[in-house]
Amino acid sequence: MKKSGAMLAAALLSGLLSATPAQAEYPDRPLRMIVPFGAGGGVDALARPLAKELSQILGQSVIVENKPSTNGQIGMAEVARAAPDGYTIVMSSAAYAITPAFYQDLPYDIRKDYAPVTILASNPLVLVASTHFKASTVQDMIAMARARSGSVNFAAPGNSGIHFLAGELMGSVAGVKWTSVPYKGAGPAFPDLISGQVDVMFDNPASSLPFVQSGRLKLIATTGQQRLAAAGNAPTVAETLPGFDAANWFVLAAPAGTPPDRIQKLYDASKRAMRQPALVEFMDRNGIGAILSTPAEAAGYIQAEADKWGGVVRDNRLAVQ
């Protein structure tokens, strides 16, 4: 009887254990990818094909949601408040690290409120000019500005982003002053740049190079450490101003506190996605280079960029106008 009782107890325990629902493997429902900028912009253009590839790899839909606002603040704040479960992620640009240098009262802290997944990729900027502009090289531009301070007009797509800061950094390194003309993005600046009302602009290759190829703008330089094949092997600013480097980059992050195993799964999926032929072709066409840093490397990269551009803001006493 004792043996039968023990066997019955074991059978009951086995039944209870088998009835306990197994924990679902992450992810078991769709993910939200917040893009804190408008549809059709540089971040959105990469986010959508990336989301498509991630959906295939993760086996769940990755839905892109645009939350445009001043330098991405609304979208970034929403992700900071989201549950740290790996189902809400953000894809942003260099603004992720630059915006805090201009705004002291942001509703989030980039060091405390996010868990970086990876720096996906980056692209150098292109320095384009009106075809009416007399200078055709960085040396010519510097000479003009030294002859008469402020004589070179820079179109600034936004007054606190990487394109604006690249112009300020270039002037600081060269020891000259430009006249900055703010615009609400590169799109509104193009008509004035093409007509010659402003002289030059730093921009992303994808939006400016078509104007260069059609002969409506001329290409002066790029901002990476190496020449860019997509830009026809144009010289770099660093060839005239050694050490100059300014790039727009793309980061994927989750709310702070997201379990490390889920961060790792997102990182592994991102690496696979960025190596898919459709994304490789997109990046090659637009002068974008994959980085795919580990989560730890991404945190270090973000801190270095925040320190670099924060220094430019402080040293030049820059402020949002």
TrEMBL record:
Signal peptide (UniProt feature, chain positions): 1-24
Keyword Glycoprotein: no
CDD domains according to UniProt: PBP2_Bug27
Keywords tagged on the record: Signal
Alphabetized SUPFAM superfamilies for the sequence: Periplasmic binding protein-like II
Presence of the UniProt keyword Signal in the record: yes
InterPro entries in the record: BUG, Bug_dom1
PANTHER family: BLR1237 PROTEIN, TRICARBOXYLATE-BINDING PROTEIN
Protein family (similarity comment): Belongs to the UPF0065 (bug) family.
Record's protein name: ABC transporter substrate-binding protein
Native source species: Bordetella genomosp. 8
